[in-house]
Write a structure and sequence with these properties.
The protein is an alpha/beta fold. It contains five helices and ten strands, in the order E-E-E-H-E-H-E-E-E-E-H-E-H-H-E. The chain has a six-stranded parallel sheet with strand order 5-4-1-8-9-10, with helices on one face. Strands 3-2-6-7 form a four-stranded mixed sheet.
């Protein structure tokens, strides 16, 4: 099973009613890849990081069978950073800080070895990036797309275009 995962590899600072962590490894693409590594060893990651992202983290993903050919490392850039505070029900959150950094220029060009991926998980990115990735694929079986209220608020028309092209949509209760 070939799984293409496209999204953020990032740093997060998160506060919940149960605790707080600062500048931990985060990002949808990171967690999708880690979780999938328990089920398949043909995971194809596509993302972008700065030179501040720990090489050890990349090596750990590789050790789990994650192909990192699609990871772009910007030598003079900083990795995407998100800070948020979750509420008691954990479906509601407040964004405190979003530093796009290298993600601001993310325009994924899939490696040739990725375009035939059969299962696709598009992490929470701009709808235009999600559409661009789908246009590069040559016959996927299943495409899942994650989005959030932010894109619903500022890019609903493009999000609707993206949603029409996918088989599975993931959103939380608040976003639904």
């Amino acid at each position: 099973m070939s799984l293409l995962t496209v999204g953020t590899v990032a740093f997060d600072s998160i506060e919940t009613p149960y605790g707080k962590v600062e500048k931990v490894i985060g990002g949808a693409c990171t967690y999708i890849s880690w979780a999938a590594s328990y089920f398949t060893n043909d995971i194809r990651l596509t993302s972008i990081v700065g030179n501040d992202f720990p090489v050890d983290e990349i090596k750990q993903l590789e050790s789990r069978g994650v192909n990192m050919e699609g990871l772009k490392i910007v030598s003079d850039g900083k990795t995407f950073f998100w800070e948020g505070k979750y509420h008691e029900n954990m479906n509601q959150r407040d964004t405190i800080t979003t530093d796009l950094n290298v993600l601001d220029d993310f325009d994924p060009e899939l490696p040739a070895s990725y375009v035939d991926s059969k299962y696709i998980m598009l992490g929470n990115l701009t709808p235009d990036i999600q559409i661009r990735v789908m246009e590069q694929l040559t016959g996927p079986k299943v495409i899942a797309l994650d989005t959030m209220n932010f894109w619903m608020d500022i890019a609903m028309d493009r999000l609707k275009v993206a949603i029409k092209k996918v088989d599975i949509l993931t959103i939380n209760d608040e976003e639904a």
